[in-house]
Design a protein that fits this description.
alpha/beta; Quinone Oxidoreductase, Chain A, domain 1; 2 domains; seven-stranded mixed beta sheet; six-stranded parallel beta sheet; 17 strands
Length: 382
């Protein structure tokens, strides 16, 4: 089969790999029909995440058709059209029993922190991802779901991470009716978080980024006010001015490890790897939220130290909520919003790229070329 493979920072290739096989009675083999490149994949592409091994296949957003199932699988059969959450989880451990699927204790040797994630380095279990023609799906009775007949393929694809994570980020904000919500980052997750904030009662939504085409999308798709931090000397001061000098009630960090805005922080994290990620967006969030406010963190950070302004967070009495999204928990409510016409996830898709050209897709997404917001990968086997 053809698959994207990692060859080192900024180097990905499409190569022939063996088609995965059933290794456990609970496995399924899925023929991938659509995958996507996520902003979090760029952290891997740039060499930000530890233990990203040469030969690894990325891709934690994918849907497909079941080709084969193990002898113990009861909920799926060959031919089923399925959507697969990015979490690999057992469904029965202490954490899964409490709905914390992203913290499953049985799927990752490094499970003191995150559980398993498809295509996201050996730090997250070493599972090959879906930027390939076929993928092995463990715990097939637990994670994947048959796609409802009324749900479009691209909409289902975005439910496997970007939409679910954005919605979860708004949930973590504990938004109260009338709240002012500020979202740092106008990538796909930030756009979905901003849109979801309205569903939860926000009275005002503000999106901050430095790319005008993404801010235009935030105004069009999420009906948000926007600020370009590159055009302001002090974006925190601008946020204070915009909120009566109190600060936003809720701030969502949808940026993560490679935030721009501070050259020293960017160099020490992205270039020298001295931090688990540039904390610029998170520190701006701490400074921009009002005293007693809430910060939601969905942007991906590595496990190393980051220079976060924790003392300011403590002294302001802030609540910080964060986690990798337990994707499948979000689906029932998301399906309602989509079916009722309140949300069309694939409105943010800007590019559809054949798997053979995935290296070009990564380059374009990384360099922010051609106003790319969300690229979808189309395998030839589909």
């Amino acid at each position: 089969m053809l698959a994207m493979v990692y060859r080192g920072p900024y180097k990905v290739r499409v190569e022939e790999k063996d088609i995965p096989t059933v290794e456990h009675p609970n496995d399924a083999i899925v023929r991938v029909t659509l995958a996507a490149i996520c902003g979090s994949d760029l952290h891997l592409y740039h060499g930000m995440m530890p233990d990203t091994r040469v030969g690894h296949t990325f891709g934690h957003e994918f849907i497909g058709v079941v080709e084969q199932v193990g002898s113990s699988v009861q909920n799926l059969k060959a031919g089923d059209r399925v959507m697969v959450p990015f979490n690999v989880y057992c469904g029965s451990c202490y954490f899964c029993a409490r709905g914390l699927y992203s913290n499953c204790h049985n799927v990752n040797p490094n499970a003191t922190a995150v559980g398993g994630i498809y295509g996201y380095s050996h730090t997250c279990g070493g599972y090959d991802g879906g930027q390939a023609e076929f993928v092995r799906v463990p715990f097939a009775d637990v994670g994947p779901s048959v796609i409802p007949e009324w749900l479009d393929d691209e909409d289902a694809l975005l439910c496997t991470d970007a939409l679910a994570t954005g919605y979860f980020g708004a949930q973590l904000g504990d938004i109260v009716e009338g709240d002012t919500v500020a979202v740092f980052g106008a990538g796909p997750v930030g756009l979905f978080a901003a849109k979801s904030a309205w569903f939860m009662g926000a009275g005002r939504v503000i999106v901050i980024d430095h790319l005008d085409y993404r801010l235009e999308k935030a105004r069009e798709f999420a009906h948000a006010e926007t600020f370009n931090f590159g055009k302001h000397k002090d974006i925190v001061l601008e946020m204070k001015r915009a909120t009566g000098y109190l600060g936003a009630d809720v701030v969502i960090d949808a940026v993560g490890a490679e935030a721009d805005g501070n050259l020293l922080q960017h160099v020490t994290s992205a270039k020298l790897k001295l931090q688990g990620g540039s904390p610029v967006a998170l520190n701006w969030a701490i400074d921009s939220v009002r005293k007693g406010g809430t910060i939601s963190v969905m942007g991906a950070y590595g496990p190393m130290f980051s220079a976060v302004k924790f003392g300011d967070a403590m002294n302001k009495g802030l609540t910080l909520n964060m986690n990798q999204c337990p994707v499948k928990r979000q689906w029932p409510r998301l399906f309602e919003h989509i079916r009722d016409g309140h949300l069309k996830p694939n409105d943010i898709v800007t590019h559809r790229i054949p798997l053979e050209h995935v290296d070009e897709g990564y380059h374009m997404f990384s360099a922010k070329l051609d106003n790319m917001i969300k690229p979808v990968i189309v395998p030839t086997a589909s």
